[in-house]
Amino acid sequence: MGIHIIKMPDIGEGIAEVELVAWHVQVGDTVAEDQILADVMTDKATVEIPSSVAGKVLALGGAVGQVMAVGSEVIRIEVEGAGNVKPGVAGAAPVAAAAPASAFAAAPSAQAAAPAVTNGSNGSANGSANGRSNKAPAALVRAPGDKPIASPAVRRQAWDLGVELQFVPGTGTAGRITHEDLQAYVARSAQAQPAGTTDQRFAQRLDEQTVPVIGLRRKIAQKMQEAKRRIPHFTYVEEVDMTELEALRARLNAQHAKERGRLTVLPFLVRAIVLAAREHPQINARFDDEAAVVTRHGAVHLGIATQTEGGLMVPVVHHAETLDLWACAAEVLRLAEAARSGKATRDELSGSTITITSLGALGGIVSTPVINHPEVAIVGINRMVERPMIRNGAVVARQMMNLSSSFDHRVVDGLHAAEFIQLIRGYLECPATLFVE
Amino acid sequence: MDIQHTTLLIIGGGPGGYVAAIRAAQLGIATTLVEGETLGGTCLNIGCIPSKALIHAADAFHQAHHFMGDSTLGIHVESARIDIAQTVRWKDGIVARLTGGVGALLKKHGVKVVKGWAHLVDGKTVDVTLDKPDTKPLRIQGEHLLLATGSVELGLPGMPFGGRVISSTQALSPDSIPKKLVVVGGGYIGLELGLVYRKLGADVTVVEAQDRILPLYDEELTKPVVASLRKLGVQVHLGSTVQGLNTAGDAVRVLDGAGRESVLAADQVLVAIGRVPHTHGWGLEKLMLAMQGRALKVDDQCRTSMRNVWAIGDLTGEPMLAHRAMAQGEIVAEIISGKRRHFAPVAIAAVCFTDPEVVVVGQSPLEAAKTGLDCISAHFPFAANGRAMTLEATDGFVRVVARRDNHRIVGWQAVGAGVSELSTAFSHSIEMGACLEDVAGTIHAHPTLGEAVQEAALRALGHALHV
């Protein structure tokens, strides 16, 4: 009986140490040749350390989590025959592979013995057990720092297969890697992960899809880029108590929905913006930053951000100041339909002076809308939801909704933006003021 | 300006460039090769091939001259005479046949060859000043740029080329043989050419700064060369540096190791102190590529620090050998075609065509010891080889170096007549990972110099048969 020490192999160029991440065997276990002993991890990959001999584990070289140097002792195995440790020189002996003559002599006896695998519970042991065919001679260990030896043809084939020869055990004289060794290695790797048994839920995906950015998408991309590049945005978020307005809307819908159509929140907000813009004309404006001119518009041309199949479009409700609730609702509906069916005209898609964006039920609690350049403001509607609020010292359920609005800080001051939104909030919270002037 | 487009654009038509071009064309890559001079580069035009031609002629003349005296072979020649102009014409004929052959191979494979000097514009673009007068420069763009501009001869700062001071290029096309030749540099170029001139009748003195000739090879290996130089009457000044020409310009001032200055009369001075990568004068500096010393830095796939800019051959530094450049050229073409390749030879043979020849592949015993390998080595002398005796070439030996633990061969060295041809066997055994037993167990034909290879392996195993 001799002692065979397996040292940490040279795992790749420039790797001096590795972390021990798992042991697959314990002291006292009987191991077979090629059985996986441990997993080690480099900064690039996890690598299995196989046993180059059959025998009984005497000692483990480190604990899981320990960082070990290449060339340090991984495991001590008691083997039949001489082993690679000279008595009395424990550990100090070079790890060099056994001389060729003795390797050949050892091979037949190893076959005859064919020890049973007692610690074969993990999957990787199965593959190595299969790999033991009648002819397999002892794979020689490469000493730390030794390069894999293979003929030019084998090296070329390994490159073609994408195999690092460093990991391939060589069974030829002096540890030479033969064509058969390479084929056996590739077969083993394929066996270790048969296609049928892989868990598809966690399967690694390497597919990718390139989508050309063309047409409407390119236009959107350019427009967004332009807006974000040119405009220093600031976003102002305020919550609005919509309870009163919702009551009014329910009432109106109950009375008139049949003949005039259903009302959403949108026409009320449009009206509130129309009224607020009268007092804050700098917000219903377009900024030609190249000419350094802000044009304030008396008319309110409201852009309504609309999702279509091709992407975002902004049809425009022209002269929103002239429309009552139902006319406004009808116009918004018509324009959205036109945009989605691709029938919107150029005029219907341009000329807005301020824009509303809403994702309805998906509105979230806060958003940071991108201004529709060259406008200077955009009002975003977040989701309306019933929340507990305190009114007159009591907790009451109120329909709350946030408005997230962005402004062009070059021409809109924070104070004016806040006043503008507060005006809108006032109109929405007390809907009568929308109609009684 | 005309702009041509191609996939692979190669600058330089030497052994690296033209091999890359042929292989790329074989793999279906549209390839353009730009060369300012004759195809074939230094190797075919002013290096390997012409020097070997002159060495052959000088050996033949020397042999004939030898037969004017007492000949053991019983051959007697009344008088030997050489028409050096004819010798040079013969050599030029060989060069022309080979360079013409390269042109024909490139044409056959469909490589577009542009004759003119390339100047880099950027990492994909090159302006070519065409060799024809009155033509506009041509601009060529390639997806891949392969730099293979080779190397240039190094001159001595205090003694520029011109007049009596010549380079190896001029030494390969002599009008006449000078009476007195001083060779600066005892490396393989200086010794090969120095021996040619000596055998053609010149008095030759070699000046070497280090304390022995062929300083890159181990001393045991160069001993037979030293003996041969002495026998042929070549003077060698070791540990000496050249200070420049004297004021008359007809002698070289030399300072020896002890600080004594002497003057060596010279009709011609051959400066052969080495070659440096050809990195200047063609816009390379514009690309700001990573360098390694004076050479362009490349990885094991011959990639430079710029994407899709590749470099091979002498431009990438030592060893500056044509066969290395060719192998690199081949793998670059294959990588560009999508194959996975690396330039990862175990060893590259280096051959010195001195008299006798020297060849080394892999590690010498000393080099192996330095890397910490426990090695055995053994040599077999040609004095014990029958074929060597029949060739009157019993000087020299073959030496093998192998690991003690598994007998894998890590190096071969040989010195002797014709040993350059043994490099094939040496390289092959090392690349195959052969052990001493592999070589010892291979039947080597008798009677050949190659038997010494087998015998060296046997001797390392402790049972040489003929020593």
In the CATH hierarchy, the third-tier topology of the largest domain in chain A is known as Chloramphenicol Acetyltransferase
CATH architecture of the largest domain in chain B: 3-Layer(bba) Sandwich
The total tally of domains of chain A equals 2
What's the arrangement of strands in the largest beta sheet of chain A? 9-18-17-16-12-15
Assembly form of the protein: heterodimer
Assign the CATH superfamily of the largest domain in chain B: FAD/NAD(P)-binding domain
The largest inter-chain interface, given as chain pair and residues per side, is:
A-B, 20 and 16 residues
Mean pLDDT of chain B: 95
**Broad CATH class of the largest domain in chain B:** Alpha Beta
Major sheet summary line of chain B: 5 strands, mixed, barrel
Q: Judging by the overall fold, what is the CATH architecture of the largest domain in chain A?
A: 2-Layer Sandwich
Shape of chain B: globular
What integer value in Å does the Rg of chain B equal? 24 Å
User: Can you write the helix and strand succession of chain A as a string?
Assistant: EEEEEEEEHHHHHEHHEEEEEEHEEEHH
Beta content of chain A: 15-25%
Form type of chain A: elongated
> Per CATH, what is the topology of the largest domain in chain B?
FAD/NAD(P)-binding domain
Structural class of chain B: alpha/beta
Number of domains in the coordinates of chain B? 3
What is the tally of beta strands of chain A?
18
Question: CATH homologous superfamily of the largest domain in chain A, by name?
Answer: Chloramphenicol acetyltransferase-like domain
